[in-house]
Amino acid sequence: MIHIQNLDFRYPRADFRLAIDELKIETGEKVAFVGPSGSGKTTLLNLISGISVAAEGSVNVAGKEVSQLADAARRDFRVANTGFVFQRFELIEYLNVRDNILFPFLINPSVELTPKVRGRMAELAESVGIETLLKRYPNQLSQGEQQRVAICRALILWPPLILADEPTGNLDPGNKDMILDLMLSEFDAQDRTFVVVTHDRAVAEKCERTIDFSNFHRRIQPDEAIS
Amino acid sequence: MKGLLYLTLNYILYHRWKTVVMVACLFLTVILPFTISGLIRSFEKSIYTRSELTPIVIGAEGSALDLTLQSLYFNRGSAVQRSATISMAEQQQVTRDNLAVAIPIHSLYQAKQFPIVGTTGDYFRFRDLKISLGSPLTILGECLIGADCARDLGLAPGDQLLSDRPNMLDLAGDYPLKMTVAGVFEKSGSPDDSAVFVDLKTAWIIQGLGHGHQDLESPEQEENVVRDGGQIKALPSKVVPYTEINESNIDSFHFHGDTSTFPVTAIIGVPKDVKSETLLEARYQNNDRGVQFVRPVESIKELMSVLLRVRQFFMVNTILIGVSTLLLTILVLLLSLKLRQGERETMFKLGCRSGTIMALQTFEILFVAIVAAILVLAVSWLCASMASRYFDSWITQGGSW
What we know:
The structure holds 2 protein chains of 2 kinds. Chain A has a single domain (2-226), classed as 3-Layer(aba) Sandwich (Rossmann fold). Chain A contains 9 helices and 10 strands. Chain A has helices at residues 41-49, 71-81, 97-101, 103-107, 115-127, 143-155, 173-190, 201-206, 222-226; strands spanning 2-10, 16-25, 30-34, 56-61, 64-65, 82-85, 161-165, 193-197, 209-212, 217-219. In chain A, the strands form 2 sheets. A 5-stranded antiparallel β-sheet of chain A has the order 5-4-1-2-10, with helices on one face. In chain A, strands 6-7-8-3-9 form a 5-stranded parallel β-sheet. In chain A, a hairpin with a 5-residue loop joins strand 1 and strand 2 (16-25). The longest helix of chain A is centred in the last third of the chain and has 18 residues, at 173-190. By secondary structure, chain B is an alpha+beta fold. Chain B has 2 domains: 2-46 and 304-398; 56-294, no CATH class. Chain B contains 12 helices and 17 strands. In chain B, strand 3 and strand 4 (114-119) form a beta hairpin.
């Protein structure tokens, strides 16, 4: 599913550098990125999804060389192939639960909102137990409910790859376990590839593989910055 | 596009009060100069057109503007303040010299607050007034009324209309005249719509310069008189508190004195040509008869120049307020953009096209601008549609200068 080779990424005017010689994540694999803050975990999620583009190296996702795609194509690729779950849920405050789940269809005309999609939305909502909350707005939901809405949004387009950035970071222990079990059971059932950035040992332990970013990240040396 | 509109609508509905405030800001910024400008244009049109169509006015010395307002717009305020008249001889002189068509105007009285205008048939031809209901004036005591007057008083041909008593405390003064409505004019969009027209002689009767006598010896008057020896006296309790001209008493109506000495408030002159106009003007320059020659358009220009100065001052003030409101609106929009930064980032991460994010913000601004514009147009249209009638009514009945 994901094959990264000779990746060398730097942010402009910053001394951060992420260098990966090779990283492979197989289809259906559940992988946790762990490591200290600022070690490049979220940066790698962004590179995999095409939010950021590396100047050097190859990032191949689902058979597409993401860094070679034009901006619009990368956005289309992202909406069609990846589902995002964020730490702060990132729901749209002025949309109700139903429209939040269908949000990707409202912002990118390359995907079409069909009756089949609406049916899937209802199924997803039922599967995570929010079918009675569809007309509510995010500020009327608990944090656990909000994250369940975000999970439905991530899954609505049948993406082969789910990227989660600290998905349980803002949840209380009870909700954390529930959301984690929910995600993994949903992803297992569909044989999706799941990449999660986490500081939580419990989350990492539930994944099949853990990748420690301490090995990838390093500060740029003064002579490298000049070159 | 459909998704964008849906998102915009949801955003606006969710933040409805913010949207209302922004629409109100834009609306208030634009509506004042827009409407004031429109109202002044409407006022200019109302007042200016008529003055342009009236070449000259001859009347008693005093304020040229009051004379213009009284004789062209039958302004009640001017009539009250300005009761000076000239004699009918002036009209006869102009006619005799064949310099202009001289139309007498007698505008001193009212009926139910509508001005009574005594004139001749020349006036109706000059103003191109057409009768829509009824017939022209044929006998003394009849009146023709404007369309607005007919509508407001609910009058039709055959109905009767009593002139207002000039002074309720003047017990020895003139009695009101009970007039019969002979006809109603078509609406002309001018002060004529709010006037009661009578023959000049009828106006003089209202003024008490002409009168009729009841035949006290007739059998119909038997109950209204007492016989004291050879004399017949009217019973005071049977005195009719108004004058009425009808078929039975019309022949008794007469004027004492020479009608050429009778008063008119103005003479509208329609000169034959420029030379005639110049000759007329020369005649009234430095005359010792207390008569003045006025070109109404010049009086109105003078009035409008004052109004324009007020408008200019107002516009400058409005521009300053507009700029500050616009800056505040921009600030609100910038703050809104900042507040929606997180939303834009989420949209970007989820794969939203770059144009879509910009379009979403633009749609919101456009929505606010369009709603404000629709409100401005609707309110301006409403004001403009009411303004014309209001101005005519104000100039004719309420306006005092």
